[in-house]
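USER: Note each token:
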Amino acid sequence: MKVERKPRPDEPSVSSELLRGRAGEVRQALSGKKPLGDRFSRKPDQVPQKVDLWSESDGLGIFDTSRMEEFSTGSRLTTWCQLHEKDLTLSVTHPPSNIFQQMILWTDQGKLWHFPINNEQGMDEEAQIDFTQHVMLDEHLQPWCTDKGPIRSFMELVLVGLSKNPFYTVDEKIEHIHWFRDYFAMKNAVLKGLALPEIEGGDPDFNIDVEVNHRKWGDAIIRPRKPKQKAVKK
């Protein structure tokens, strides 16, 4: 079924000449306008210039650099440098994603035992030292300690305690013995007054500083003890 559409007799028909005239007016109007790209064009971005603050220039002369030595603080505190390096390390290091990676990290840091468990872990240098050097410490008393007397008796007790100590290395035990040697050598004046032989071979620069907390212990440190009086039976 076909439907024919015809213009109504009362509807005015638009002539082709009128359409051409209007199209020409539109073209003429558009040709006189500026393109949108020119009207809304962005300004070129400003390129930032790099300024070197640490260049070897003369500077502004605000501060007098000749007096820097007068305001020197002496030794430099390295705590801030260590904290800065720690922050840099933490910023790059990623935390462990699971418990297994955390245990591996703790093992590498020495917080956990290596498997299989070894009680002498980390004592590789001590493994090469003979056991007798930990126990037979009398040879370190021969150069300076007397063969008998109160100092000899005291040092023998010290050697017994050191020989039973499983945590000290041989070097630490020898250093412990040398400390007593230097201490007794510093007290040679007291030993001479007690008619005891003097200690030879001590360190002349040895010094001992003992700080006593009197607030904690009170006057009991310097207060002489009174002898106890025996009760008299009536």
